Amino acid sequence: MKSIVIGASGDIGGAIARAFAKRGDDLALLYNANERAALDLATELAAYGTMIVTKKVDLLDAQATENALNELARTFGAPDVLVHAAGVSLVAPVFDTTAEEWDRVFAVNARSVFLSAKWAARNMIYGGRILSVSSIWGSRPAPCEAAYAASKAAVESFTRSFAKEVGSLGVTVNAIAAGMIDTKMNARFTAEEKAAFTENLALRRIGTPGEVAAAALFLTGSDASYITGTVLAVDGGM
């Protein structure tokens, strides 16, 4: 199976790539800024004996994103699975959020999901799996995260809509709504803030990237062939 992971240099994207490599997938690891992390991950995953390629992609540039995916298709081949795990956060009150900041969050978190999903569905020859990593904030917005929450809500709505369009092609489209996960993005929260947050969770703890990867493994596998248009919460019972 050929799988593309966008945002593979991040904590969640890297965990998903590791899970896919263990499954035996050939992998294309797409990254933006953190080239060192992507190359180190590729070296690590080469031990599994599958094909591993890396490619830099500028998710802020729509044409560059499409060009990078088209170039990838010529060397990697048609994908069976595409996972979009790239994302940026913005913590700021609406009154302090500029139009440029809003557009940047939407370009990375929502527009690039639309572009990559459309490309993948066109290039999946015998059906396939499209999966996006969203966030619980897409359906449970918090103050000072309006841009981030709105972008993730857009991803979830797109997921449900696009699933209706490509189901007849044998392509499933799903998303994971990740909760408080132990990632660099969430490192800004203090231990006290994390403790206060987890008090409202059924499991009383934050999650791990590996737990998100386990959900990704399921939703992109053969056992999930009748699941589409779904947003699966991996949030510790929020």
Give the tags.
238 residues, alpha/beta, Rossmann fold, 7-stranded parallel sheet, 44% helix
Word description of this protein:
This protein has about 240 residues and is α/β, with parallel strands linked by helices. It has one domain (about 1-235): NAD(P)-binding Rossmann-like Domain (Rossmann fold, 3-Layer(aba) Sandwich). Helix content is about 45%, strand content about 15%. It has seven helices and seven strands. It has helices at about 10-25, 35-45, 60-75, 100-125, 145-165, 190-200, 210-220, and strands at about 1-5, 25-30, 50-55, 80-85, 130-135, 170-180, 230-235. A seven-stranded parallel beta sheet has the order 3-2-1-4-5-6-7, sandwiched between helices. Helix 5 links the parallel strand 5 (about 130-135) and strand 6. It starts with a strand and ends with a strand. The model has no long low-confidence stretch (mean pLDDT about 95).
User: What's the Cα radius of gyration?
Assistant: 17 Å
For the biggest sheet, the summary is: 7 strands, parallel
CATH class: Alpha Beta
Structural class by sheet pairing and helices: alpha/beta
Name the CATH homologous superfamily: NAD(P)-binding Rossmann-like Domain
Shape: globular
Helix and strand pattern: EHEHEHEHEHEHHE
Show unreliable segments.
none
Measure the end-to-end span. Answer: 34 Å
CATH level-3 fold name: Rossmann fold
Helix content: 40-55%
Quick check: average pLDDT? 95
CATH architecture: 3-Layer(aba) Sandwich
| Number of alpha- plus pi-helical segments | 7
* Tally of strands: 7
Strand content: 15-25%
How many structural domains in the coordinates?
Answer: 1
- As laid out across the biggest beta sheet, the strand order is 3-2-1-4-5-6-7
